[in-house]
Write a structure and sequence with these properties.
Blueprint (H helix, E strand, L loop, with lengths): L2 E5 H17 L3 E5 L7 H8 L5 E4 L2 H10 L4 E4 L8 H7 L2 E4 L2 H13 L4 E6 L14 H8 L5 E7 L12 H18 L5 E3 L6 H5 L9 E4 L1 H5 L17 E14 L25 E7 L11 E3 L5 E5 L4 E4 L12 E6 L1 H9 L4 E5 L1
Parallel strand pairs: 1-16, 2-3, 2-9, 3-4, 4-5, 5-6, 6-7, 7-8
Antiparallel strand pairs: 1-10, 10-11, 10-15, 11-14, 12-15, 13-14
Pfam family, one: Ala_racemase_N
Protein name: Alanine racemase
GO molecular function, one term: alanine racemase activity
C-alpha cells in the first residue's frame, strides 16, 4: 500500500522560520489547513506548532479543528453557501465575505446563537475570483456597518488563485489605501489588511511589502517551502515536509513504443509514436497508486533515474531506464509532490497517512 509521510521536524522547522520572519515585521498570520482535508492526526500536528489561528475552506474541517483545539481562532476562507450559515457561525470565529445578502443572514444567525461573528471583506484586485469591486466598496461597507452581531475586522484580497495574477507593491498599496478610505469615511478601525498569502512572501523578503499589509494566510509555503515567483525553494526551508512512498507491483523490461491500433485512453489522451524509439527497450515499473489518488504531473521522483510515463485509475507507470539501482518487485519508490498533488493524496482514503517524528 502507498503511504504518505509527514516529517514532523521539517514542518516544525518551516513554521519556526516563517514565524520568526513575521514577528520581526509585526505581521499576524494563520495557517491554511485545507490541504490536510480534515485529517485529525495531521491537524493535531499543525496545532502543536504553536499557531493561534487556523484557516480552512470546509466547515467540516473547522468542526474537526474546534474538536481538537476549541480556543484556536478559526477562519472560513470562502464566501458562505446559505445552507452552511448555521455551521459557519458555530465553528468559524471569522469568515471571508463578499455578498451583502449572506452577511445579513450571518448577522441573523449570529443573533440566534448569541455570538458576535467577525468578517473580513474580500476585495477584487484583478485575479477575478471572489471579491467586492472597488467602486462598490463604500456603499457595501456602509450597509455592513449597520448590521448587528457582525464585526468587520479586516479587508483582504486573493492573488494567483485563478488567473495567475501576481501580487505587486502597487496592488498591495491600493489594498492598504482602501482600508484608510473606509476608516476615514466611517470613523471605524479595521485591524487587518489581509493581503498576504504564500505568493506574497517574496515581496516581504525583497522589502517590497507596504507597511499597511499586516496579516498573512499561509499554507503552501509552510508545507512546501515554495517561492511561487521563482518556482524554487525558499532559502532555509524544507520542500519535502510530505513524501509519497509507493511499492513496485510489477517490473519488466518492455518496448518503449506501444504496439497496435491506437485510440484515446480512458482519460481522453492520445499518444503520438516517437519513431526514434522503435526497437528500444526500458525497464518499466507499475506502482500501487493511480489517477484516483493523484495526477502524475504533480509527482516529483526522488530518484533521478525514474521518469513518470502515465497512469490509469489505480496504477502509475514509471520508466527506470537500465534499472541501475536494481529495483525489484516489492521495493519502494519515493516522490515529492506539488501542492495540488498532495491535496489529492490527502483526500484519497486509499493512501495510508503517517507522521515521522
Amino acid at each position: 500500500m502507498a503511504v504518505l509521510k509527514l516529517y514532523h521536524h521539517k514542518l516544525q522547522h518551516n513554521y519556526n522560520h516563517l514565524d520568526k520572519i513575521f514577528k520581526e515585521h509585526k505581521i499576524d498570520w494563520g495557517i491554511v489547513t485545507k490541504l490536510l482535508c480534515g485529517h485529525e492526526m495531521f491537524l493535531k500536528e499543525v496545532l502543536a506548532l504553536g499557531t493561534k489561528e487556523i484557516h480552512d475552506s470546509r466547515v467540516t474541517n473547522l468542526k474537526a479543528i474546534k474538536k481538537v483545539a476549541p480556543d484556536v481562532q478559526t477562519v472560513y476562507i470562502k464566501p458562505a453557501p446559505k445552507k452552511s450559515i448555521p455551521d459557519i457561525i458555530k465553528y468559524a470565529d471569522v469568515s471571508f465575505q463578499t455578498e451583502l445578502e449572506i452577511i445579513r443572514l450571518l448577522s441573523d444567525e449570529a443573533g440566534r446563537q448569541n455570538k458576535l461573528h467577525k468578517i473580513i471583506i474580500m476585495i477584487e484586485m484583478g485575479d477575478l475570483r471572489e471579491g467586492v469591486m472597488g467602486e462598490s466598496l463604500i456603499h457595501f461597507y456602509e450597509q455592513v456597518f449597520e448590521l448587528p452581531n457582525i464585526s468587520v475586522i479586516g479587508l483582504g484580497a486573493n492573488f494567483n488563485c485563478l488567473h495567475g495574477v501576481m501580487p505587486t507593491r502597487d496592488k498591495l498599496v491600493q489594498l492598504s489605501l482602501y482600508k484608510q478610505v473606509i476608516e476615514a469615511k466611517f470613523n471605524r478601525r479595521i485591524p487587518w489588511v489581509s493581503g498576504g498569502t504564500s505568493v506574497t512572501i517574496p515581496l516581504l523578503f525583497n522589502h517590497q511589502l507596504p507597511q499597511g499589509i499586516n496579516h498573512f494566510r499561509i499554507g503552501e509555503a509552510l508545507f512546501f517551502g515554495l517561492n511561487l515567483f521563482t518556482g524554487e525553494t525558499f532559502e532555509g526551508m524544507y520542500d519535502d515536509v510530505f513524501e509519497l512512498v509507493t511499492e513496485i507491483i510489477e517490473l519488466t523490461e518492455k518496448p518503449m513504443v506501444p504496439n497496435g491500433l491506437m485510440a484515446e485512453n480512458p482519460s481522453g489522451e492520445s499518444f503520438e509514436i516517437n519513431e526514434s524509439l522503435y526497437g528500444k527497450k526500458s525497464h518499466r515499473a507499475i506502482l500501487d497508486v493511480g489517477l484516483l489518488d493523484i495526477n502524475p504531473k504533480f509527482l516529483i521522483p526522488k530518484d533521478e533515474e525514474v521518469s513518470v510515463i502515465g497512469a490509469s485509475s489505480d496504477m502509475l507507470i514509471v520508466e527506470l531506464g537500465e534499472n541501475k539501482n536494481n529495483f525489484k518487485v516489492g521495493d519502494t519508490l519515493k516522490f515529492g509532490m506539488r501542492y495540488m498533488g498532495a491535496l489529492s493524496i490527502l483526500n484519497s482514503r486509499y493512501i495510508e497517512k503517517v507522521i515521522v517524528k
